[in-house]
């Protein structure tokens, strides 16, 4: 599922590993949270080249779901 288009000030989830990024996408799908895997914005200096974005009203829901699964992430504005 696609989330709203990105832009300045759009929250994105970044990860330390590709495994965590893809696991996060899987968790989002299982929870019915719309998301999209995107290239990690260079200005965030993420360790993994992948990031995840979702609709603004789903950020807290996705953060909670990822935390419950033990997925380490950082939430940043891009």
What does the model show?
The protein is α+β, with helices and mostly antiparallel strands. The protein has a single domain (11-77), classed as 2-Layer Sandwich (Alpha-Beta Plaits). 32% of the residues lie in helices and 23% in strands. The protein has 2 helices and 4 strands, in the order βαββαβ. It has a 4-stranded antiparallel sheet with strand order 2-3-1-4, covered by helices on one side. α1 (18-31) crosses α2. The radius of gyration is 11 Å and the shape is globular. The two termini are 20 Å apart. The model is unreliable at 1-7 (pLDDT under 50).
CATH-level-2 architecture: 2-Layer Sandwich
Q: Determine Rg (CA atoms, Å).
A: 11 Å
Helix share of residues? 25-40%
Distance between the termini: 20 Å
The top level CATH class name: Alpha Beta
**Strand order, sheet with most strands:** 2-3-1-4
Mean pLDDT: 89
The dominant shape is: globular
Instruction: Determine the structural class based on helices, strands and strand pairing.
Output: alpha+beta
The CATH topology comes to: Alpha-Beta Plaits
The portion of residues forming beta strands comes to 15-25%
Are there runs of 5+ residues with pLDDT below 50, and where? 1-7
Give, in order, the helices and strands: EHEEHE
Instruction: Tally the structural domains.
Output: 1
């Amino acid at each position: 599922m696609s989330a709203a288009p990105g832009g300045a000030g759009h929250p994105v989830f970044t990860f330390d590993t590709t495994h965590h990024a893809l696991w996060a996408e899987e968790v989002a799908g299982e929870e019915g949270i719309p998301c999209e895997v995107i290239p990690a914005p260079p200005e965030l200096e993420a360790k993994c080249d992948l990031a995840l974005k979702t609709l603004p009203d789903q950020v807290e829901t996705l953060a909670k779901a990822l935390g419950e699964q033990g997925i380490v992430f950082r939430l940043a504005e891009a």
